[in-house]
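Our example copied in:
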Amino acid sequence: MEININTEEKILPTEVMEEIKKPKIAIVSLTSCEGCQFALLDLGEKFLEAMSLVEMVDFRLLEDEEDAGEPIDIGFVEGNPMTAANKKTLMELRKRSKLLVVIGNCAAMGGIPEIRNYHEKQQTVKHVYKYIQGIETEEVREVDNFVKVDFTFPGCPITGEEFLKYFPILLANVKGEGELPTIPDSPVCVECKKKGNRCLLLDKKPCFGPMILGGCDAVCPTSRMGCQGCRGLRPTGNVKAMKMTLKTMMTDEEFENTTEIYGLKDDIEDWEKEHGEK
């Protein structure tokens, strides 16, 4: 029995090939705990389904192959640019990405590592290392001090469901379809109310929620822990009034210490300068 096999190559038109080509993305770590990336993995099949829409060229927690450094559509970056190698990685990622997206509080606001900016450098290092000679500790600075950032997923860690919500919009944007997403200017209090939580402030327990950008599903207040501002200030939050309210429930030192945890201190100082409060 003779079987004829047609070996002629069928080549699709260029425009068709472009249509079926998946966007390329990379998820890159700088100096960080990688907690925001694990928040993505915690989504399980939902995350894998979202990633089926793209070609992943770099994600250290999943990929073994070395990134070839090719042009990509979206570069996601977590962590602080703390070292010369970090800064080089960040600059190269920005150069090769159509969109650069920050994920997490460390990259967006300095995060917990920024606490050291507020204290004497050598004493801070001595808390961890007995011998500090040769240890370089540069000032912690956010990613947008070095490169242009197109969008930010805030939080410590980021909210996985929020990532799934805005990820398709980012993909559409790199294809020239629609604008970049905008996180609604609503406080943490909105989600707190939806959950039926009793307001911590009514019980004279410090909570920064009214002036902090919502979207975290009010996870801390739901656990009866006051919001400490890891998602950053709302664009229209009344910082002056909120600060006065909080200082009836906590000392000046307690307020300062709390605002240092996630880098909120700098943002409050910038707000006060902008509004003539300092």
